[in-house]
Amino acid sequence: MGVGRGAIESAANAVSRGLGSLKPRVAIVLGSGLGFLADEVGRATRMPYKDIPGFPEPGVAGHKGELVAGTLDGVAVVVQSGRFHLYEGHPPEVAALPARVFHALGVATLILTNAAGGIRPTFRPGTLMLIADHINLMWKNPLIGPVAPGDARFPDMSDPYDGGLRKIARAVARDARIPLEEGVYAGLLGPSYETPAEVRMLQRIGADAVGMSTVPEVIAARARGMRCLGFSTITNLAAGLSAQPLSHAEVLEVGTRVAGQLGSLIKGVLRELR
Ligand code: HPA
After folding, report:
1. Is 197 a catalytic residue?
2. Model confidence over 25-83: pLDDT tens digits?
3. Which of 34, 251, 253 to mutate to test the pocket of ligand 1 (most atoms within 8 A of CB)?
4. Which of 66, 74, 117, 225 has the most CB atoms at less than 10 Å from its CB?
């Protein structure tokens, strides 16, 4: 398995042709129901996944399938609207391919968003959480196999979500009076939601939120030295913490409700990176 130079290069070449003279410095990965930011990109070039070799068509409601490149708050960006989840059957190297392609295009900073279930008792649907760290419970890793060209064999993971970027995000939130919590994201394979017993386990091992994405991308990005910043929208209380059963419709609805605040946070961070 593993991913060769060929796969990264051919995808990067296709994207590069679409970019023209634009040199994105920041990539933004949009999670469930958070597609709004792609519409705010100025002078946007849209690249459907079907035009990018190795990028599958996304199959989840709330996820589009395109890269949108242009400028957002004065910064050249590429926005990934629609991601590849392991639970769809994609191997981890496919989940991580966009991050590796962004790196090949010169992107140094990866901003990721996701929807997650809240585990910390004070979290409510609509809480925004800055990801301080993660726990990989997917038991999969995009780095397994031959070392991809440019990757470290044993990348350091002691600062997965960049301390400097998190400091900026906290300052932006404070100035804009947007409540922002900070905590640990547990990444599970899914696609079934957790059982109440699993959520109690996650609570005990130090997770504040649980979701089904982000971890493969961050691992691949760190193996190439990209700085990562992650935000979770807490769309629901994790299983067993409320009387309500979980539904994807609720996840999308809450994601959309706090999308504006999350967008303001991301744009505030971009302004600091100008
Ligand atoms: N569990 C896992 N993933 C999720 C959840 C959840 O409760 N909510 C949104 N994504």
Report:
1. no
2. 999 999 866 777 888 999 999 999 999 999 998 766 655 799 999 999 999 999 999 88
3. 251
4. 117
